[in-house]
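Quick one: structure for this chain?
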Amino acid sequence: MLIPLDEHQLLVFWTQLLVLVSVARLFGGFMRRINLPSVIGQLAAGIIVGPSIFGRVWPSGFEWFLPEEEISSGALLAVSWLGVALLLVTAGFETDLGLIRSLGRAAALVTGFSLVAPLIGGLLVGVALPDSFLGDEADRTVFALFVAAALAVSALAVIAKILSELGLMRRDFGQITVAAGMANDVVGWVMLAIFASFAASGAVSVRVVLETVLGLAAFLALAMTVGQRLVDRALRWVRRDGANIAGAMTVVVVTMLVYGVATQALGIEAVLGAFVAGVVLHRSRFGQPEVLHHIESLTTSLLAPIFFATAGMRVDLGLLDSEALMWVGIVLAVAIGAKFAGAFAGARLAGQSPRAAVALGAGLNARGALEIVIASVGLSLGVFSETAYTVIVIVPVVTSVFAAVSLRMVVRGWRGSADEQERLDREKALSQNLVVKSSRILLPSRGGPASISAAQLVEFAWPKEAPATLVSVVDGGERPDISVLEAVLNERVVDHRSVNGSSAAEEITAESRLGYGVVAVGVATRHEGQLYSPMVDEILLNATIPVLIVRRARGLDRPLPAAFSRVVVPVTGTRSSSAAQEVAFAIADQLGTEVVLTHVLNRKAFVPRVLKRRTSELDPSEVIAKELMDIAKLRAVEAGVWPRTLIPSSTNVPSALVAVAKDEDCDLVVLGAQLRNVDGRPFLGHTVEMVLEQCDANVAVVALPRRD
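Got it. Here's what it folds into:
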């Protein structure tokens, strides 16, 4: 039977939420203004409104604000645990298991040493701490293990926040720091699960270890296989008609609760299930990035501040007498020194530079949510006394400040190696692109030469980390041979789907809404009364993402065109023209293709008066053409390409472009287009359609979706 809170209890509860959220957000915002993690301010807010300050300044007011029966009812603690569960879901979203594997030896050595050294130090400290730090009837060995776990692990969320604020997330040492932080989190949750089982059973037991480890292993195996497939199906189903934030949010919350219930039933904290749920949700390619932003907004603005402030409220600095303060200093020295020494040693053994090793030691010292969770679990299980809890919670506050300040000092004026800078510049360029990104590529095919040409263009233009999905269009029950396309795309991750020819366009359009960045289609001859073919025309009419249309060169007697040696790109100053330039520049960067930027000067075109210039020596249209070409040249140089420029004059723009392609002996023309719907058929513009009709070279059209 549900027992409701009375009117007074409800008033106190809502007042608690109001005060905690307001003060925590205020202090968290102040910490961000001075470039420190907001979690420090939120913990400090809890300490201020807790027994340490508020309880001593106004004892009667504090008794009303935090009565004993209110704590025992668990209303406030229930809200705070919901907050940490969602916080761990977002941490799971940031955990990339592939990244941990890819960084290999460096990540493994840094992770291992940065865990082992503080674990040993924490065990020694846990054995040496006075009995007053132990909870009632707590086992000394279990207590020492909890202390070691709290000192050993790092906080991925705090590390990521510090690196992000300093612009260091994609640096080489930043990636190793994140990978080691992820591994620290995973190992930390496993340790918490095992040590909590020890605490529940009252002693260290091999049987308890085996039961916990085997139970956790079974849960992880099911979560990453059966659970992953169910999550994928659910996310795909809610996204079948396009973006569906509410539906995806429901999948996220239900997954978090199911995994949390499963781990709690195993005797492992439910927050570990929430963390694994975040990892599984992040691995699904049917997820919607906007969902994470909504969860982060709710968590960072409301629930996480309540959790951290509540954790701070449970700290009573008045319990720290001179002996306890001495142990605070010892615990902090061991926590910072051992973590720094371990990370530094691991980095140097992995071949990192001394400066990178120092940066890793500084960054991995950041602690946060996991340490507070360990302290909270230890207190709730009777392992820690209030004094021990206070000491442990001080650790993430001080170490996070140390990590932020020391890391900023270490990286000042340090730009890394030339290779690292080149990689960072490339990643920055990709992030600013309209079309050529790392998003998944959708490539439908009936196995013909046209789709092979489309696959070749995708392989040359899109980054190798962009995965592709090949969709086989099955006509009459006979599956097309797409082995050549697979061979062309052999350097990237490729998966497969099949659709029925009679409903191909509808199914491909629906598939394109599931998180793809571009649809690439090959076309051959035009069909009577249509732009290309019934399937391609319908895809264009309903496209919600960019479509790359590739028409192979005429007269080719082999499946693949020759590698592109020269490409012509019309420059018009539009978004679609910029998208076409991205494709051309990406091909040139990979193959060394010569790029010929072309602007056809149409002297009959109307020139707005506002664009007319002050000079009489140049026609206004020539001035505009020169400015457009200068902008395009600058973009090319930034992409590592040095193009030639041509500005021919003609009253017939399509014929002029076809003539340039022929005169320059180019084997590829890349055009941009804005998709339009004219009388129920897709329309790419007169120039684009005439070039497709008349040009003998390979032609690629980057068609941007309609703007509603």
